[in-house]
């Protein structure tokens, strides 16, 4: 007999079977020879049992025997799952497997230790309970849920076989449901190595890294949308960081939002994820994302409704604005923190709100930055007021609008932006619906750069009608700021000229500054040798140059931060090891 790792293993012939009082399965034929049963795998043995080719008693004895293939297979799984009592788990699983499915109960599963979170048994949907009590469910539990460190292998097994599909394959779907049903999704402390804190992320976090296509299904199965990692980082932060990482690896700019970020954020939010719920150390998700270099992902959270002025979870009453302002005084985070603080201004961020100690965010900034904030505040406020006025009192229809020759992209975005604004949306802000519309138009083959009859590009046309948010979405997904048009003039030239017209100056100036983030270069000369910046007043030119330098440094800082932390998605989340959390923002008002 092979060596047994069960020191107290009782020979099968003398072991007391718990199945003596269970009626045998309907037996259609005599038992297969014991020698034949000993060569069957666990799956084959269970199929033989269900087909009535052997009795429950014989199947149980075979499973408990170390001389059978199924017994050794069960033994090996139990050794991994419960090294302190593998024999007890093997006994429980053999008993469950050999008991008819219709006679199994959740109490049986609870007694066998199936539930990692015992409260799950009281609130399982009938479909999930039936799966967990089935042979298939129990086998999936043994393979992926019994051992604390087994759930990552579900992704490894699938990815090694083929790339994850849009939705999980049926077997993977059942495995995910089993993991959630038994509570394995709550596991946070599975070690990767002997290094302290080096652990696998929870199931939902790991899924967002290696198979984000499955995350909606996982959320539908009931996984906690606010699950924290062992380091206390919420799912919304790690999921958006992973998506931003994928976009970055494909060549996308870390400062420019993409439709996939909005879709992922909205999916999490629709399932109950808190967009501003802080980490265990007190940092809002948007701050974690920005300070880790994922600036566009941080802005997406603000665009989806993450509050800038709440002090939830912070004992000192500090808001996102306070924490970002404090972070600007640290060299490592200064650019990305101030970038998000500047962006937050148009999402309602209040730099003058005071914390419990009476300290405002703007008072934490160096004088040069606080001056920049005041100028930005004024520009945003005036641009919003002017845009709302123009939208409420539209210009007379152009000849293109009257005769139906308006470029498709302009007509489509203006119509959608008008409906959004009528519903209360800020005309300066991008909106996920606008991103989806532009992506749809691109897929239809619509020319995103088709010029208007007067030679102006769609971005300028939308801007001059107050729809700055729609114009910005077009810049994000179809950038053409520096493409030479009539006589070598770029979009930057058009916008700079518009700042000299009293009726258009305010939002043209706003969009000119916004275009810097999307690669707009106001120093490029047209055929006559004139640059866009040369058309501006001295004060505006200084502000534009400062903005150019700031954007360039922020992009460099974000890229260096992300590139310095490249690790395998399957090993750790981007923000669990060296997270610039609230406790690392070394300023008294930034800590909770």
Automatic annotation (TrEMBL):
It comes from the Bacteria. Residues 1-30 are annotated as: Disordered. InterPro entries: Ankyrin_rpt-contain_sf. Residues 1-10 have a biased composition (Pro residues). This is Ankyrin. It comes from Pandoraea vervacti.
């Amino acid at each position: 007999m092979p060596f047994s790792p069960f020191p107290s293993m009782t020979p099968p012939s003398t072991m007391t079977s718990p199945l003596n009082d269970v009626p045998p399965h309907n037996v259609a034929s005599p038992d297969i020879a014991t020698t034949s049963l000993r060569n069957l795998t666990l799956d084959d043995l269970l199929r033989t049992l269900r087909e009535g080719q052997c009795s429950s008693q014989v199947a149980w004895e075979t499973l408990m025997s170390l001389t059978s293939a199924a017994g050794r297979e069960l033994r090996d799984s139990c050794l991994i799952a419960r090294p302190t009592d593998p024999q007890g788990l093997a006994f429980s699983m053999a008993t469950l497997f050999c008991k008819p499915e219709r006679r199994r109960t959740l109490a049986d599963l609870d007694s066998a230790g199936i539930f990692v979170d015992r409260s799950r048994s009281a609130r399982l949907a009938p479909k999930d309970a039936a799966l967990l009590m089935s042979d298939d469910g129990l086998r999936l539990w043994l393979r992926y849920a019994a051992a604390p460190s087994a759930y990552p292998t579900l992704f490894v097994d699938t990815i090694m076989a083929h790339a994850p599909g849009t939705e999980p394959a049926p077997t993977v779907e059942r495995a995910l449901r089993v993991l959630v049903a038994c509570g394995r999704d709550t596991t946070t402390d599975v070690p990767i190595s002997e290094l302290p804190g080096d652990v696998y992320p929870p199931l939902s976090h790991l899924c967002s890294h290696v198979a984000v296509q499955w995350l909606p299904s996982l959320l539908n199965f009931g996984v906690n949308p606010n699950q924290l990692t062992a380091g206390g980082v919420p799912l919304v932060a790690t999921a958006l960081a992973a998506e931003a990482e994928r976009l970055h690896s494909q060549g996308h700019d870390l400062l420019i939002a993409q439709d996939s970020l909005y879709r992922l954020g909205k999916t999490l939010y629709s399932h109950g994820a808190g967009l501003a719920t802080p980490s265990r150390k007190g940092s809002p998700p948007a701050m974690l994302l920005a300070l880790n270099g994922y600036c566009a992902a941080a802005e997406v959270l603000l665009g989806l409704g993450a509050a800038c002025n709440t002090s939830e979870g912070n004992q000192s009453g500090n808001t996102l604005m306070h924490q970002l302002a404090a972070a600007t005084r640290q060299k490592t985070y200064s650019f990305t923190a101030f970038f998000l603080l500047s962006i937050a201004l148009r999402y309602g961020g209040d730099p003058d709100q005071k914390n419990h100690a009476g300290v405002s965010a703007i008072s934490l900034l160096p004088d040069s930055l606080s001056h920049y904030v005041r100028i930005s505040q004024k520009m945003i406020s005036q641009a919003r007021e002017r845009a709302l006025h123009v939208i409420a009192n539209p210009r007379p229809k152009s000849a293109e609008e009257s005769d139906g020759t308006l470029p498709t992209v302009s007509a489509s975005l203006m119509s959608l932006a008008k409906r959004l604004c009528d519903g209360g949306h800020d005309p300066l802000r991008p909106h996920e619906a606008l991103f989806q519309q532009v992506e749809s138009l691109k897929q239809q083959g619509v020319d995103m750069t088709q010029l208007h009859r007067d030679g102006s590009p769609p971005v300028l046309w939308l801007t001059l009608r107050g729809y700055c948010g729609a114009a910005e979405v077009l810049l994000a997904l179809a950038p053409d700021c520096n493409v030479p048009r009539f006589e070598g003039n770029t979009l930057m030239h058009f916008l700079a000229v518009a700042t000299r017209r009293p009726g258009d100056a305010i939002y043209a100036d706003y969009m000119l500054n916004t275009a810097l983030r999307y690669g707009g270069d106001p120093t490029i000369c047209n055929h006559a040798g004139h640059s866009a910046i040369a058309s501006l007043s001295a004060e505006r030119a200084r502000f534009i140059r400062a903005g150019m330098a700031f954007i360039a440094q922020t992009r460099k800082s974000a890229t260096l931060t992300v590139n310095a932390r490249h690790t395998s998605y399957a090993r750790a989340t981007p923000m669990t090891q060296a997270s610039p959390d609230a406790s690392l923002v070394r300023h008294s008002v930034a800590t909770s």
